[in-house]
User: Fold this.
Amino acid sequence: AQSVAQPEDQVNVAEGNPLTVKCTYSVSGNPYLFWYVQYPNRGLQFLLKYITGDNLVKGSYGFEAEFNKSQTSFHLKKPSALVSDSALYFCAVRDFYSGGGADGLTFGKGTHLIIQP
Amino acid sequence: GAGVSQSPSNKVTEKGKDVELRCDPISGHTALYWYRQRLGQGLEFLIYFQGNSAPDKSGLPSDRFSAERTGESVSTLTIQRTQQEDSAVYLCASSLDVVKKLFFGSGTQLSVL
Assistant:
């Protein structure tokens, strides 16, 4: 079975400061990892993904995430937060080894990121 | 079309009635997902279609919920004998395959009175 945890319901960061949104996962094999963002009154949008290769993945809007296999984590980061980054962020995982048949993408419960001016 | 289309955008129904929600994925996308998002909550996986493989129904909360997809086209999610706890936004997403990014529709807001 696969699962993903976002331990923080809400993260508050002052504008201009670095931000981190935490995500840990559990899979049987190797993970496919994703971050999605849901802005107020807008649909979910893809930010970035890790499939294989470099552990540091760069995505949209200046976000990046680091895959850490030993800690089973995929934390989302940005060096300097903007007020416009305020949104709901979802981490998602899929087990590379699906064991046959279809396997859904499992999302975390989401983390509200609030950037204060 | 340009994106994933869901209809209706809003549905108000009475407890005990059946509802059918529709999703038109992006043309050529073999993978299609249904998720549920209750107010203030995260995404709850419901069902996943991938090409001609057997769908992953592991997320369906009860036998009142079912979904179909014909080939790689339209999907319908049916909820029978709706209950108030079914009230949520039902989101559909599609992708080229399991490692590609998902494109989400705007969702159907279901309200069961």
About this structure: Chain A touches chain B through 23 residues (CB under 8 Å). DSSP finds no helices and twelve strands in chain A. The two ends of chain A are 41 Å apart (CA to CA). Chain A has a mean pLDDT of 89.
